[in-house]
Amino acid sequence: MIVKLKWILLVLVAVLQGAGGLAQTSITENEPKTVPDDWFLLDPETDFFQGVSAERVYNTLLKGKPARTIIVAVIDSGVDIFHEDLKDVIWVNTKEIPNNGIDDDKNGYVDDVYGWNFIGGKNGNVNEDTYELTREFVRLKPRFENIDEKKVGKKQQAEYAYWKDIKAKFEKRAKEATNQYNLYNSFYQNISFANDTLKKILKVDRLTAEMVDTIKPTTPVKAFAKNAMNVLYKNAGPDADAESFLEELHEVAHYYEVQALYGYNENFDSREIVGDDYSNPYERAYGNNDVKGPDAEHGTHVAGIIAANRNNNLGIKGIADNVKIMSVRAVPNGDERDKDVANAIYYAVDNGAHIINMSFGKSYSPQKEVVDKAVRYAESKGVLLVHAAGNDAKNSDEDINYPSRFYKDGKECKTWVEIGASAWGVDNSFVGSFSNYGKKTVDLFSPGVRIYSTIPEGQYKHNDGTSMASPATAGVAAILMAYFPDLSAVQVREILRQSTRKFDNLKVAKPGSGQEVLFKDLSITGGLVNAYEAVKLAMTISKPVEK
Predict the structure, then answer these.
(1) What is the C-alpha separation between 469 and 388, in angstroms, rounded?
(2) Cα(26)–Cα(236) distance, rounded to whole angstroms?
(3) What is the pTM of this model?
């Protein structure tokens, strides 16, 4: 599941008497004014920000050096391949003739010019989907719902215990999602009503606290509206922008709406749109060639971090030059399915990807063996897999975030890198409060807080998450592979790990608890991705591209 993480600093609850009740919540992060949008590209020594040091490495070690082109597959929600900052860095399948309805390269996918979409079909695309928890509940329910626990045989006991755990978690989370949606939607409707009411009275397009103070209510409705807006300004500050507040609140309400109506809805099934034989996990030829899909914000943001055009003087610069982005759509607004993830990996590998970025994850993987085979295939072909550690503020050593670097037989993929999220300065809040961590499972941390990148229709936006940290590392890996072509994926992984920036005595707030811990204890390397040191290390063991 990909999560569009919004920072909620305050949860404001106020019960207004007289004209009815209003509970108010959610304002956006108080973003620092002094942090530049491109902080994640910068360097602590030259720029005083804990970025990946991309600008420094281009201006020094790699200045004037030749490089080869690297293909980075973005397995995600879709990519806007016509975005002004991405259109020139999109991978093109030159073996395919566009829109002729023929599988020219005979790879099983018709007109796959820019990649492939495994969650689409002849009649459209999947947008929302259920969570894997819901699908497991639906799968096991017919077998165990009405069974007498006393009659469960020894062979069924483990699975029955699993069912009970799934059932309890599903029912709890489904109820919570519905309650949260109703709550936040009520907040949104009330504040929106109050805002619109007072704007009409004052005949203005935007309210200010001073304007609201001038209103003398003459009806219960006006009194309610003024009271509601006063609570907003009291808690969010007199300079708060009500319109921005409402946008944020609406997004939070929508987040829970999707959970309630789709994610935890046992009666919702998106698979009819795809039209595949879902019972066959090894089926390959399904989907369509719409690599953007209905909601490509997440994938487009990820793609921009890796490779937004560095030479067009528009928008932003990506971390890596000499990159082509291959869009492989497999992640809905819900949990990705194991079958689709496996096929997305196969597609990327078979079509020449050097690196695969996977900014998604989930807590259950019922067909893990299917994904394992695809990961083993990528490993055997020397493809680097970069995966986001997850946004649950949990220890991944204890709570697995799938897909995982570890196969079911206990062996480990040697071309896998797991990434946590960091912020721009070295203080207690250096680790993203949402980020998963793990001394045995997370390799390193990478910029993932307040990351400015591309979103569809030529727009740009700040997003937070390990979903942003993963492509930041993928971008650094692409630099290494582009300028040092004889490096293997295994070597690139080791260079990334060995070259991390260390903070031996830095204490940070442990995600999920706030307890102070040493940063070095939250990952395998105890460090932050570092393009400058990675290139220096690569220079000692590899030959650069020859002119």
Answers:
(1) 7
(2) 9
(3) 0.90
What is the residue extent of each domain of the chain? 39-88+291-541, 133-263
Domain at 39-88+291-541, CATH from 3.40.50.880, 3.40.50.200, 1.10.287.990, 3.40.50.20: 3.40.50.200
- From 367, 376, 374, 382, select the one nearest 346 (Cα to Cα): 374
Model confidence pLDDT, tens digit, residues 39-57: 999 999 999 999 999 999 9
H-state helical runs in 237-286: 242-258, 271-274
> Among all chains, which residue has been given the structure tokens 């935890």?
264
CB atoms within 10 A of CB 100: 10
Predicted local confidence at residue 13, as pLDDT = 35
Question: Taking a C-beta distance cutoff of 8 angstroms, is the pair 478, 306 a contact?
Answer: yes
Query: CB-based contacts of 324: which residues, under 8 Å, 6+ apart?
Result: 69, 70, 71, 72, 89, 90, 91, 92, 307
Residues in the chain: 547
Tokens representing 65 are 């050096």
Token pair of 207 as six digits: 């309210």
Using CA atoms of 409, 415, 416, 420 in order, give the dihedral in degrees to the nearest 10. Answer: 150
pLDDT given at position 543: 77
**Rounded Cα–Cα distance for residues 531 and 317 (Å):** 15
Tokens representing 87 are 């259109």
Model confidence pLDDT, tens digit, residues 197-207: 999 999 999 99
Least Cα distance to 298 among 323, 321, 332, 326 occurs for 332
Give the per-residue pLDDT at 477. 98
Contacts of 279 (CB under 8 A, 6+ apart): none
Query: Which pairs with CB-CB distance under 8 Å and at least 24 residues apart come from 135-140?
Result: 135/335, 135/366, 136/166, 136/170, 136/364, 136/366, 137/166, 137/167, 137/170, 137/266, 138/266, 139/366, 140/166, 140/167
Q: What secondary structure does DSSP assign to 276-320, as a single string?
A: --TT-TT--S--BS-SS-S--HHHHHHHHHHH--SSS-SS---S-
**Which pLDDT does position 1 carry in this prediction?**
64
Q: Which residue has the tokens 């998106």?
A: 270
Rounded to whole angstroms, how far apart are CA atoms 234 and 240?
9
Rounded-to-integer distance, Cα 82 and Cα 97, Å: 18
Task: Look up tokens 């893990």; give the residue.
Answer: 368
Residue 354 has pLDDT above 90, yes or no: yes
Tokens coding 254: 């929508």
